[in-house]
Design brief:
About 20% of the residues lie in helices and about 30% in strands. By secondary structure, the chain is α+β, with helices and mostly antiparallel strands. Strands 11-14-15-16-17-24-21-20-19 form a nine-stranded antiparallel beta sheet. About 60% of the residues are buried.
């Protein structure tokens, strides 16, 4: 490393330490690192005894930019106690003093290498480097360095590290990413791979190092991996040399969005730059150039005389639903000679232009000619890709950020705009794509896909359960035009396949809970994103909300009965999580329904958004699952909120206790008011996560260990379901506590960028990154889908952030003072007491001036909420029939059995159904009808009666259409009506015999 004043990796020839320490062969266990070696090299220093150990005698004058750095590996013990994290390197100055205060030990992860940087005060003279061990634990130290590290003035794109998050594995995630070189939201990724046989962990920063503890690359590959848990598809590999893995050092790696480059130990050099559908490779060899190709499930064909390589790939993971075949067309800048599955060239430098298509080989060639015509230089391709990234990343300019913060922030924006991906191509017939959602049995050939090729855009590679929380709000604020284009690509899935994917990989993958595109797209529309077909997007979301899906891969599980019960029973696995996510989605969809002029549906969906109360067990003060008959899963004596699984998706009862981001005031009221919610949050953050309550998972999963090792109580920022929880302190009347938690996460949970870390858990499609981007700016989109969209406010991390909006205006966020607490705020020079701000205030252009403090203040009034009166929410509930009959004598019991899987087919198109409600009359506000498999009513009259003889018209409808079979449609009464008897008179139906699956009367309390 240039600028080194001192360095030791404890290898032969390095300075060796004195004091009571030993040198060994490194850790024996780690979920993310190679064991039996140091971080670099084969040896490391081992610490075992408390005390101050004088390691090295030095004589180093300190300049303005001198810093001490090292990597440390605290070993876990049985508990774990984290005693091994009480370790730090220090210095002794010539006056006998040292550095002030050790680094926060909670920022060190167990059984992993952690990079620590400690700036040294200018003008001093370092006489010794010390190891200070304050606890009884054991561990390792490596790569001790004193170096000059001056700040560099660079553009945002130059701060990005694409290897960030790759120091991970299936056992422990520090991001679980791979170094994707691509254009924003592009068709392909291009990546180095450390395991050519894997479709999951493509590139591991350290764990797959060779016997000499050097990283090795097995190949360079085109990839379409949305996450390691989903797996890769259509991979196809390019390998320099004879096909053997090649060793290198990370210091010889360029990991930028627009340029990946590496110089191997053997002297081979590879650089690649991306386009939308292709890439340009430049290879340099110490001798004659040789490039090989491979595909585990596909083909490679070579034309040496013309320097052309073609092929196809049918690689697909188990979750790559809808993936068919990809075609490859590449050409070198000179002829070659065949050598196995590769070509050998007379010179030492050769360039490969390569492109892919999901439609045909001819289209792959067309994509290549369009994007990288012959004669295009490497710099031209890289510069175009760089400019595309800079346009997006440069929309936020930071002042006063450290080098590490700049890397974290702009790498986060890179991840944000990496996904979702386009799956369409520009053809002679216009924009077209091979559909991943239309099932077609035609076989693919060597030159053409068997998939249905259709017109229009297509967006893929996205898990909405992860991303709706922060990713889509960030698109809507920072890049609304792009946001609308991406949404339109998902709306196309609905047009072709009838549904929008929950997890698009690229088609309908059966994974995760919630149809979260509903709230994501509604929120975007309500924030002014208009360049997508909002009407069709609404229809897609409405189908999710009102129609039980035909299979497990689409729609909302359990909807056939939850829509009538008001909760999702245990017959649906993870039913509670399905129920709570449905409330969030219904809340957003209600806002969109209002905006598009569907008042009945808006009223109904907004009421459904309150149904989380039906899963709240007042006996224990937590949400839990219920049987279909209403019984709770656990008796109070058996319930443990620390247990994972069962009703909770990838979390436990503690984190799910706060899964109501759209109605913080209602949640507080359930617990007895804001003070009670504050107390519960305090207990939540003070109760340690042990990582040893696997519950229904049957064993420890990585999310448990990651949540434990964050050391923030039960708070699992390592996974998405918890990301909104700190901000609920605003609904508890304690905004300063939210500010303290958020600042702690920002400053110690996103570290390690330079050694492939950077995240406290899975960085799913940009969500973990988008959380950092928002929170560091002092903003958070808490109540998504609100009819009055906005952001809750916290303490910004930087001196100034200048956001260049797409409409030409600017949002300028400044801070004065120090500390994590907001003392006061001015918006456009006017005092602002609310702990929230409207979206339209920002997009009109605004200046936010925060004054920060080291001590908590009372600043910040509670943000708006769905429930506004301080009382527990009371959603409407259906009346229970004491008796019911049909005028044509048809048995109608199935109309009231709380499932859309049964139905009543009447003998006529115009039946009359009478209904006597059980118990005292309650005011009916909304009624629903659920169509069957035929004969849906098209006109009807609803009547009420006190005595069953004299009837009053409550509602009349005509010309109604049920777009889908077994769809539940709501109809609001003009005014509430409380009667003992009700009558539905069907006037006409879409068939000779009327058919209904359910009739429901939703009433409030008296």
């Amino acid at each position: 490393m240039s600028g080194d004043r001192f360095f030791s990796s404890f290898e032969e020839g390095d300075p060796l330490p004195g004091g009571d320490v030993g040198i060994g062969t490194g850790p024996v266990r780690s979920p993310t690192a190679r064991t039996g070696a140091g971080f670099t090299g084969l040896r490391a220093l081992r610490y075992t005894k408390p005390g101050v150990h004088r390691l090295f005698e030095v004589d180093i004058p300190v300049t303005e930019h001198t810093e001490l750095s090292y990597v440390v590996f605290p070993e876990s013990d049985e508990e774990p106690t984290y005693r091994s994290t009480l370790v730090a390197l220090d210095v002794e100055f010539d006056d006998g003093g040292g550095l002030t205060g050790p680094p926060d030990p909670r920022s060190l992860y167990l059984d992993q290498w952690n990079l620590v940087r400690r700036p040294l005060p200018a003008g001093r003279l370092v006489r010794a480097i010390l190891l200070v061990v304050s606890g009884e634990g054991t561990g390792w130290v490596d790569d001790v360095r004193v170096a000059e590290r001056p700040p560099r003035r660079r553009e945002p794109v130059d701060h990005v590290r694409t290897t960030r998050g790759t120091h991970s594995s299936a056992e422990f995630s520090r991001g679980n990413t791979f170094p994707a070189t691509a254009v924003p939201n592009g068709f392909n990724f291009w990546t180095p791979v450390t395991d050519a046989a894997s479709t999951n962990w493509l590139y591991e920063y350290h764990r797959r190092n060779n016997a000499a503890n050097r990283p090795e690359l097995a190949a360079f590959a085109v990839s379409h991996q949305p996450s390691p848990w989903m797996g890769d598809r259509h991979s196809w590999q390019v390998m320099p040399g004879d096909g053997r893995a090649l060793a290198f050092g990370h210091e010889h790696e360029i990991d930028r969005p627009h340029h990946y480059g590496v110089r191997f130990d053997c002297g081979i050099r590879v650089d690649l730059a991306p386009t939308d559908h292709g890439a340009l490779f430049e290879f340099g060899f110490p001798g004659a150039a040789e490039v090989r190709f491979g595909c585990r499930r596909g083909g490679v064909r070579l034309d040496p005389r013309h320097g052309i390589v073609t092929g196809h790939s049918s690689v697909a993971s188990r979750l790559s639903v809808g993936a068919r075949r990809m075609f490859v067309y590449g050409t070198f800048d000179e002829p070659g000679r065949r050598r196995g599955r590769g070509l050998r060239f007379p010179g030492s430098t050769v360039r490969l232009r390569i492109a892919t298509s999901l439609i045909s080989l001819a289209q792959a060639r067309r994509n290549l000619e369009e994007e990288i015509p012959a004669g295009t230089t490497f710099d031209q391709v890289a510069d175009r890709a760089r400019a595309a990234w800079q346009d997006l990343l440069g929309r936020v300019e930071l002042t006063g950020a450290t080098e590490d913060q700049l890397t974290t922030f702009y790498s986060g924006l890179y991840r944000l705009f990496l996904y979702p991906n386009s799956a369409h191509e520009e053809t002679p017939g216009g924009r077209r794509h091979a559909s991943p959602v239309v099932r077609r049995l035609r076989l693919s050939t060597r030159t053409r896909t068997g998939a249905k090729v259709t017109g229009g855009p297509m967006s893929v590679n996205h898990g909405f359960w992860d991303t709706y929380r922060t990713v889509w709000p960030a698109y809507a604020l920072l890049a609304p035009s792009r946001c609308g284009e991406l949404i339109e690509g998902f709306v196309q899935q609905f047009r072709e396949g009838g549904w929008i994917s929950r997890w698009s990989s690229p088609g309908y993958a059966d994974l995760m809970t919630g149809t979260s595109s509903d709230v994501a797209f509604a929120d975007a529309y309500l924030k002014g994103v208009r360049n997508f077909d909002a009407g069709t997007a609404y229809r897609a979301a409405l189908r999710n909300a009102t129609v039980a899906p035909p299979n497990r891969a689409v729609g909302r599980k359990g909807l056939h009965e939850s829509i009538f019960l008001g909760y999702t029973p245990l017959s649906t696995p993870e039913g509670l999580s399905w129920a709570l996510e449905s409330c969030v989605n219904d809340f957003g969809l209600a806002g969109l329904a209002d905006a598009l002029g569907h008042p009945d549906e808006a009223r109904y969906l907004r009421d459904r958004a309150l149904r989380y109360v039906h899963h709240f067990d007042r006996r224990i003060g937590f949400f839990q699952g219920r049987h279909a008959d209403g019984r709770w899963r656990w008796d109070p004596s058996a319930y443990d909120p620390a247990v994972w699984g069962y009703d909770y998706t990838e979390t436990n009862g503690w984190n799910t206790a706060f899964a109501v981001p759209h109605d913080g005031a209602g949640l507080a009221a359930l617990h007895g008011g804001p003070a009670a919610l504050e107390s519960l949050l305090d207990t939540f953050f003070a109760t340690p996560e042990t990582g040893r309550r696997p519950g229904s998972y049957g064993g420890i999963i990585h999310e448990m260990t990651e949540a434990r090792d964050m050391r923030m109580g039960q708070y699992g920022h390592s996974n998405q379901p918890s990301h909104h929880i700190p901000f609920l302190y605003l609904h508890a009347g304690a905004p300063a506590k939210a500010q303290a938690v958020v600042r702690e996460v920002l400053t110690r949970c996103y570290l390690g960028s330079e050694i492939g870390q950077g995240y406290p858990g899975d960085e799913d499609n940009g969500e973990m990154s988008a959380w950092y981007v928002f929170a560091s700016l002092g903003l958070y989109p808490l109540a998504l889908g609100s009819a009055s969209p906005g952001y809750v406010l916290g303490a910004p991390l930087f001196g100034q952030a200048r956001i260049r909006l797409e409409n030409g205006r600017h949002v300028i966020i400044t801070t004065t003072g120090d500390g994590p607490y907001v003392e006061d705020l001015r918006v456009d020079g006017v005092p602002h007491e609310q702990a929230w701000i409207a979206h339209h205030r920002l997009t009109a252009g605004a200046t936010l001036e925060f004054h920060l403090s080291e001590t908590p203040s009372r600043w910040g009034t509670e943000p708006p909420s769905l429930t506004a009166d301080g009382r527990p929410p009371r959603p409407l509930t259906d009346l229970v029939p004491a008796q019911a009959r049909s005028s044509d004598g048809t048995a109608v019991t199935a109309l009231f059995d709380d499932t859309s899987r049964t139905q009543v087919t009447f003998r006529t198109a115009t039946p009359v159904v009478e209904y006597t409600a059980e118990g005292p009359p309650r005011p009916v506000e909304i009624y629903t009808l659920t169509s069957g498999t035929g004969g849906a009513p098209s006109s009807w009259t609803l009547e009420g009666s006190t005595d069953g003889h004299r009837w009053e018209v409550l509602d009349e409808r005509d010309g109604e259409v049920f777009p889908w079979r077994r769809q539940t449609r709501p109809f609001a009464l003009a005014r509430p009506a409380a009667f003992a008897h009700y009558r539905l008179r069907v006037g006409s139906a879409a068939g000779r015999r009327a058919c209904l699956a359910q009739w429901e009367l939703l009433a409030g309390e008296r």
